[in-house]
């Protein structure tokens, strides 16, 4: 009996297998076909980049002299490039912790029991900053932080006058604070986008406005992974929420935090739209993040050789970061 | 007991205030943009912000005279075409990656995943040179091609995650029913993977709709997409704030309303890659 059935099964298996193989390859073809514009272009465009980075003149033509590594060596002495790279990392180091901590607080507030309907509204409203077009975020920032009619300046002025009116109640403390504030802000007309440091802060604020909700949403969904019994038990043990956070919730939060760190790092290296629409890298070069800088060198100063070399360096940095990213974040599929 | 009760209530109030603050900060900039777009241009420039005003559509009319309508059309065309093509190309690839083992799978997966890391500016110059060699500068088709390179990986990422969640037993059952591999993909995986496909479609649309850098460098004046037009009003002597905010509203509002409707799915998609 087994003699009779076994070949049959085998045949069936075989045919299934070949069909599967065929299907697999057809899918792969469609996949590579789908990817050809990107994969193919990525590679060829990277080569174009390499080729251009090695040229002296930007215009493609027959009479070109190879510059070999001159453009790359030039980068070593290129203060603008170095500074904008440094500035990008400073931006990253300032903004990431702020967004992460604020996002964690928001997530905890949304996770806490009580005010259910308000919590739902909040959760939905967190999507608004995320969905707003990046360029439009920059435009909003320019409107709200305008030095002569911006609503932020009005809020600051109101806060100051409020302080002044309750000043006598605070007695001596107010004078100190007021003096300090006057030192920071000489007039009620704060020129947010005109002062280098404030411009950097303003761009950071808009970036935080847009991306803190992302951190909050990721962390909130991590918080919901904590088994309720464990959380309840921990809350019976201690009154302190940070104890619960540190000992019970943190292990569940870690993957989300890692993901945020990595995705935000990538996004800030990419960051272009908000800076471009808000400050164009100015005043001076106070907000010249790397993408804006390379764009300006390549498309405004039309120094495509240098810009290509910068792009290649940026690509290398990105590859290194993505290697790290893959090691910590990506799990085998 | 009473002390605990009052401290709890105080905590509840703090909680309420915190939630209201979150709501305020999320909504206010958006509200401010929309309300400014409805204000008289002179009113926007007043130092004391006005909360009550007679809404006017003057700014929108002025914006439409500057070809904002056409640019919205181009944006819509680019975003829709990109979304459809990404889904067509991405879902089979995602299915293959989720279901089959083959040589080089790891490399292909790596290739897809790292696409998310690559800064667009790195590829901007080469894309520009390629597009100008093909005489495609100013043609919205080139934007479709370029956005595909960013959106196909997103589709693959999200959909392969979704397809992996479909139990393999279903495939086997379908095989016994006499389905071939393609109809398993078409009739089993696609319907069951619909939520993931929907999420990835949403993301594709939003990314292509919102993109600025490539649209800025690759399009000519007559084929600019809506975000580029919104930023282009900035140049010039007098900044037409009303028109800028009207254009900004037209660009951002559809996406925001759409994402509020699908907020649950969107949050799922955002956090999908993150907490696995």
CATH superfamily of the largest domain in chain A: MetI-like
Structural class of chain B: mainly alpha
The largest pleated sheet of chain B is described as: none
Give the overall shape of chain B, derived from the CA principal axes: globular
Looking at the structure, the CATH topology of the domain at 67-232 in chain B is MetI-like fold
Distance between the termini of chain B: 43 Å
Query: Would you state the CATH class of the domain at 67-232 in chain B?
Result: Mainly Alpha
Mean pLDDT of chain B: 84
The name of the CATH superfamily of the domain at 67-232 in chain B reads MetI-like
* Total number of strands of chain B: 0
Q: Give the rounded overall mean pLDDT of chain A.
A: 74
Q: DSSP helix count of chain B? A: 14
% residues in beta strands of chain B:
under 5%
Assembly form of the protein = heterodimer
The helical percent of chain A reads over 70%
The name of the CATH topology of the largest domain in chain A is MetI-like fold
CATH architectural name of the domain at 67-232 in chain B:
Orthogonal Bundle
Q: How are the elements arranged and paired?
A:
The complex is a heterodimer of chains A (333) and B (276).
Chain A lengths: L1 H52 L16 H7 L2 H33 L4 H10 L1 H5 L2 H11 L6 H20 L1 H13 L11 H28 L4 H10 L3 H30 L2 H6 L11 H11 L3 H25 L5
Helix pairs in contact in A: 1-14, 2-14, 3-9, 3-11, 7-8, 9-11, 10-11, 11-14, 13-14
Chain B lengths: L1 H36 L3 H4 L13 H8 L2 H32 L5 H10 L5 H14 L6 H25 L3 H9 L4 H12 L1 H17 L2 H6 L7 H7 L8 H21 L1 H10 L4
Helix pairs in contact in B: 1-13, 3-13, 4-7, 4-10, 4-12, 7-10, 10-13, 10-14, 12-13
């Amino acid at each position: 009996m087994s003699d009779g059935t076994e070949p049959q099964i085998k045949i069936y298996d075989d045919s299934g297998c070949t069909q599967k193989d065929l299907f697999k390859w057809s899918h792969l073809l469609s996949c590579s076909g789908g990817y050809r514009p990107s994969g193919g272009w990525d590679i060829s465009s990277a080569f174009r980049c390499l080729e251009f980075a090695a040229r002296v003149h930007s215009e493609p033509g027959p009479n070109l002299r190879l510059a070999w590594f001159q453009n790359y060596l030039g980068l070593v002495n290129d203060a603008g490039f170095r500074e904008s790279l440094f500035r990008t990392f400073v931006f990253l180091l300032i903004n990431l912790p702020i967004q992460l901590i604020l996002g964690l607080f928001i997530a905890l507030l949304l996770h806490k029991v009580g005010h259910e309907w308000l919590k739902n509204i909040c959760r939905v409203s967190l999507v608004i900053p995320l969905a707003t077009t990046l360029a439009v975020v920059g435009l909003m920032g320019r409107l709200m932080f305008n030095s002569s009619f911006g609503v932020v300046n009005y809020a600051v002025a109101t806060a100051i006058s409020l302080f002044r009116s309750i000043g006598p109640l605070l007695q001596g403390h107010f004078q100190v604070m007021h003096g300090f504030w006057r030192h920071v802000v000489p007039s009620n007309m704060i020129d947010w986008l005109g002062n280098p440091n404030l411009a950097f802060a303003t761009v950071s604020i808009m970036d935080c406005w847009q991306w803190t909700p992302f951190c909050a949403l990721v962390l909130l969904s991590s918080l919901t992974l904590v088994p309720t019994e464990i959380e309840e038990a921990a809350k019976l043990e201690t009154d302190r929420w940070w104890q619960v956070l540190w000992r019970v919730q943190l292990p569940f939060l870690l993957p989300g935090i890692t993901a945020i760190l990595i995705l935000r790092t990538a996004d800030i290296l990419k960051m272009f739209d908000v800076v471009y629409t808000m400050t164009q890298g100015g005043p001076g070069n106070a907000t010249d993040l790397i993408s804006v800088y390379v764009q300006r060198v390549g498309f405004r100063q039309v120094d495509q050789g240098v810009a290509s070399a910068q792009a290649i360096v940026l690509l290398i940095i990105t590859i290194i970061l993505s290697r790290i990213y893959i090691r910590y974040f990506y799990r085998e599929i | 007991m009473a002390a605990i009760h009052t401290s709890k209530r105080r905590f509840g109030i703090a909680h309420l205030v915190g939630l209201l603050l979150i709501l305020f900060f999320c909504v206010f900039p958006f509200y401010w943009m929309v309300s400014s777009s409805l204000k008289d241009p002179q009113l926007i420039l007043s130092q004391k912000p006005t909360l009550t005003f007679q809404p006017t559509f003057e700014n929108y009319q002025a914006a439409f005279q500057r070809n904002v309508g056409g640019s919205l059309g181009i944006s819509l065309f680019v975003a829709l075409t990109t979304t459809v093509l990404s889904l067509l190309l991405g879902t089979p690839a995602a299915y293959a990656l989720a279901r089959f083992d083959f040589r080089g799978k790891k490399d292909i997966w790596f290739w897809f995943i790292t696409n998310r890391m690559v800064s667009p500016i790195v590829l901007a110059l080469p894309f520009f040179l390629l597009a100008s060699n093909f005489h495609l500068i100013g043609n919205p088709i080139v934007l479709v091609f370029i956005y595909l390179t960013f959106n196909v990986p997103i589709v693959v990422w999200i959909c392969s995650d979704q397809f992996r969640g479909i139990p393999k037993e279903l495939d086997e059952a379908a095989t016994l029913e006499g389905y071939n591999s393609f109809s398993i993909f078409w009739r089993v995986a696609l319907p069951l993977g619909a939520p993931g496909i929907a999420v990835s479609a949403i993301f594709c649309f939003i990314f292509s709709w919102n993109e600025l850098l490539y649209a800025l460098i690759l399009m000519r004046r007559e084929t600019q997409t809506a975000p580029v037009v919104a930023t282009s009003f900035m140049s010039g002597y007098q900044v037409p704030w009303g028109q800028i905010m009207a254009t900004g509203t037209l660009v951002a509002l559809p996406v925001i309303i759409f994402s509020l409707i699908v907020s649950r799915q969107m949050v799922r998609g955002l956090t999908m890659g993150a907490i696995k």
